[in-house]
Automatic annotation (TrEMBL):
GO terms for biological process: alpha-glucan catabolic process; trehalose biosynthetic process. One of its GO terms (molecular function) is (1,4)-alpha-D-glucan 1-alpha-D-glucosylmutase activity. InterPro entries: GH, Trehalose_TreY. Keywords: Isomerase. Its EC number is 5.4.99.15. Coiled coil: none annotated. NCBIfam families: trehalose_TreY. It is an enzyme of class 5 (isomerase). It comes from the Bacteria. This is Malto-oligosyltrehalose synthase.
Length: 848
């Protein structure tokens, strides 16, 4: 919004995806690099740019590229005429088109089979194309010249073009002849499901039409960054957000090259998903992460850990799920490796077996045994990946993670000889080739280890984020990218430690609470966090809603689909995302619109969970049962459910407002650079993508802000009270956001490099709030936010809870209320107007 000031130096940045998903090329008909590879195979100019295994153990893929883009089996689609040869009169080239969308060029060496013998000139050109191999090394130039001749012939001689069209039509009508032509190509068109077993190029996760580039090659790096680097150098953009950094073969080398390619300093953050016990690597030349770690940290401080036992018991009794999340995550990663990403696992097993055959001591380690062990090790990885690069000593943290994974894998699969795990552990850590005469190829071992590192990240992402997070529904606010569903809340001590560490090491790290990939809107999560204060009430409501909805469908026994786990997800989904405009008597049209969004989110959840349905094998009957169940809840005529649900959601939504304002305040004042995702200036109750990528009405927000600013300037306290009373329109969040961004703009040094100290809060209800002080030069800012709104609603008296405010005179930026420091200030006074307070002191003491 143009009225919200630019925050620090982070207004405009470009998102870049350099690797696996990471720099990816969409394999469409307009991708010249990919078309070149399809046309000429391993001899293509750009064959080395992609991560392709031309020496696959599958003989039918020797020197061929699998093209798994068919919606049905090859033979069925071929006979049905879904594959058609087409002539391009502008290029003078031929290609097989699948569904009119996927272009698969014919190799010019085989044009002779298409041109036929019915025209002398076409026949002569066919012979010339057939003799192309004699033109090395000028085969490409010769090919272009012959294509130009063919195009000219078709253009200048209508009778030749007619014969050509007739020949192509006859070929398309004869599936056996077409099959014979296809078999000669450098590609093998196949049903998309074949990719799981046989794909021989690296993809963005398991998406077949997104191929990974070998960005580690200088020529590929230069090509991929040919546009963005000049934009940075010229000051057109201020920075880069590198998406999915773990998909790179060597992230550190990439970041070093990126920095060295631009003389002008620029902002650089990476989407590195960190485990709670993992730290961003010190040797990466970045400003920090993209903020998923902060998103989970700030959510955690709002969750009441006292509610965990109640939610665990409810989940077990209602949904029947008793397994710990760690087991579900392990099984989910195994599921991914045995299905969607089994071909990559197969390649790793093949590479490990080749290495094993280099030494008599390991020659008996067969591929199936090694592949089985690799699967166990990757499933046990406690982090997304390690970063062993074989150019330096292995990192202590990497060794610790590897040792853990190997030890756990050995324990889980004790039927395998321990020496197999020892061999793989030594290969992955680099120990296998430390000795000069190890007998193993150092290059082969290094490549195997780095490729496995490149594999473990996608397995973790698909297994954890995109499978386990949709299977384990105990408390879905925790099921967020970078989150840990087992970590029910964050202590103030842990919160302050993480912030202080960021202030010391990564003061310019990005702070996010919503992105294009978050599974729930930031305010939906904040609202759900308020549930942690009242697990007993939640349990009662869920039981009531289930009886009402199942009875309406005639399901007396309660065992008809959807299952209880998916039903339990629905109630949390509704509680978190219920629109503010539906809090009162719902409009039938608005309710129907919301129901469509809910149905889409539920379908995605079911398919990601892969329990009753999946993307590769959708279960229409089960999905319909789930949608029908949700629709019955959202039927304007279902008075019973809505009568029960609406009073509850009204209370919860209001409690969620306090959490949302706390979350916003903490994000905009904690060490780091805040990132406000599109539309999050007001309430963000969105569901998983694509729901969170809907168009945003920025003009409405701008108008609201223009109206609010003069009122805040004249009567800040009364205005804030009024906005909070009318919280449903989201303008209270907009006002808080604008005020905090104004504060950041006025105090850039403080927020970029200021100190961080936890604020002492004491009293019987000291856990009801959290606070800290930022200071730089002659300015200090004290930040306090209330916690646990549900408990505060039940126990409205703050009693003796107070914050120990440093000496000086302090003014709240939201209300202009003044407070005197040097002693305790009651939380009841600090939060008299809002559940947040940001106090400014222009003359702080030297020591806080």
């Amino acid at each position: 919004m143009d009225q919200i000031p630019r925050d620090d130096r982070c207004e405009l940045r470009r998102q870049s995806r350099p690797g696996n998903r990471r720099k990816k090329k969409r394999l469409g008909a307009d991708n010249p690099l990919w078309l070149d590879v399809l046309e000429w195979g391993p001899d293509a100019d750009h064959a080395g740019w992609f991560d392709i295994d031309w020496d696959s153990e599958n003989r039918y893929l020797k020197d061929k590229l699998l093209a798994p883009f068919l919606g049905g089996q090859y033979g069925v689609e071929l006979k049905a005429g879904k594959l058609q040869v087409k002539f391009d009169p502008d290029e003078g080239s031929f290609a097989v088109w699948a569904y009119g969308a996927h272009k698969l060029p014919l190799c010019p060496l085989h044009y002779q089979l298409v041109l036929g013998r019915d025209d002398a000139e076409l026949d002569r050109l066919g012979d010339m194309f057939g003799d192309l191999r004699q033109w090395r090394p000028e085969i490409r130039e010769r090919t272009l010249a012959l294509k130009a001749k063919l195009a000219a012939l078709a253009r200048e001689r209508p009778e030749a073009r007619l014969i050509l069209d007739q020949t192509v039509a006859a070929l398309n009508a004869d599936w056996r002849a077409l099959d014979a032509l296809i078999q000669r190509q450098f590609w093998r068109i196949a049903y998309f499901g074949v990719a799981g077993d046989d794909i021989n190029y690296r993809r963005f996760f398991n998406i077949n039409d997104l191929a990974g580039l070998r960005i580690e090659l200088p020529v590929v790096f230069r090509h991929a960054h040919a546009r963005v680097l000049p934009m940075i150098e010229e000051g057109v953009i201020d920075g880069l957000r590198i998406d999915h950094i773990d998909g790179l073969l060597d992230p550190k080398a990439y970041l070093d090259r990126l920095r060295a390619s631009v003389e002008r300093p620029f902002y650089l953050v990476v989407e590195k998903i960190l485990a709670p016990y993992e730290a961003l690597r010190d040797d990466w030349q970045v400003d920090g992460t993209t903020g998923y770690d902060f998103a989970n940290l700030v959510l955690g401080i709002l969750i009441n850990p006292a509610g965990e036992a109640g939610f665990t018991q409810t989940y077990k009794s209602f949904a029947g799920v008793d397994a710990p999340f760690s087991k579900i995550a392990y099984a989910s990663k195994i599921r991914i490796m045995e299905n969607e990403m089994s071909s990559e696992l197969n390649t790793l097993g093949q590479d490990a077996a080749r290495i094993a055959r280099q030494n008599p001591e390991t020659v008996d380690f067969t591929k199936p045994i090694l592949q089985r062990a690799i699967k166990q090790i990757v499933a046990c990885f406690p982090v997304y990946r390690t970063y062993v690069d074989f150019n330096s000593a292995s990192d202590e943290a990497d060794r610790r993670y590897l040792d853990w994974a190997v030890a756990q894998a050995r324990r889980l699969d004790h039927a395998l000889d321990p020496s197999v795990f020892n061999f793989l552990g030594a290969a992955l850590s680099g120990e296998l080739t430390r000795e000069l005469n190890s007998g193993f190829s150092r290059a082969a071992v290094a490549r195997f280890a780095m490729k496995l590192q490149q594999y473990s990240g996608p397995v973790m992402a698909k297994g954890l984020e995109d499978t386990a997070f949709y299977r384990y529904n105990r408390f879905v606010a925790l099921n967020e990218v970078g989150g840990d569903p087992q970590r029910f809340g964050v202590t103030p001590a842990a919160f302050h430690k993480a912030n202080a560490e960021r202030a010391r090491k990564w003061p310019r790290a990005m702070l996010a609470t919503a992105t294009h990939d978050t599974k729930r809107g930031e305010d939906a999560r904040a609202r759900l966090a308020a549930l942690s204060d009242a697990p007993d009430e939640w349990t009662r409501q869920v039981q009531i809603w289930s009886r009402l909805l199942r009875a309406r469908r005639g399901d007396v026994e309660g065992d008809a689909p959807p299952d209880r786990n998916d039903e339990y997800l629905l109630y949390q989904l509704l509680a978190g995302s219920w629109p503010t405009e539906l809090l009162e008597a719902p409009n039938a049209s608005a309710l129907e619109s919301y129901a469509l969004r809910v149905a889409a989110a539920l379908t995605k959840s079911l398919r990601e969970a892969k329990t009753h349905s999946s993307w590769t094998a959708p279960n229409a009957d089960y999905e319909q049962a789930m949608q029908s169940f949700a629709s019955s809840a959202l039927d304007a005529g279902n008075a019973a459910f809505l009568t029960s649900f609406l009073p509850f959601i009204r209370r919860l939504a209001r409690l969620g407002v306090d959490n949302s304002l706390a979350q916003t305040t903490l994000k905009l004042t904690a060490p780091g650079i805040p990132d406000i995702y599109q539309g999050c200036e007001t309430w963000d109750l969105s569901l998983v993508d694509p729901d969170n990528r809907r168009p945003v009405n920025f003009e409405a927000g701008q108008q609201a802000l223009r109206a609010i600013r003069p009122m805040l300037a004249k009567q800040p306290e009364a205005t804030m009270r009024g906005l909070l009373d009318q919280w449903q329109d989201g303008h209270i969040k907009l006002a808080v956001t604008a005020a905090l961004l104004d504060l950041r703009k006025q105090n850039q040094t403080l927020f970029e490099n200021g100190s961080y100290e936890a604020l002492s809060i004491h009293g019987e209800k000291s856990d009801f709030a959290v606070g800290f002080v930022r200071a730089a030069g002659d300015v200090a800012v004290a930040v306090l936010t209330a916690r646990f709104p549900g408990r505060r609603a039940a126990e409205p008296n703050w009693d003796d809870a107070a914050a120990l405010l440093p000496e000086g005179e302090w003014a709240d930026i939201f209300t202009a209320c003044h407070f005197t420091g040097g002693g305790s200030v009651a939380l009841a006074e600090l939060f008299a107007v809002l559940p947040v307070a940001v106090l400014v002191n222009r003359s702080p003491p030297l020591a806080l």
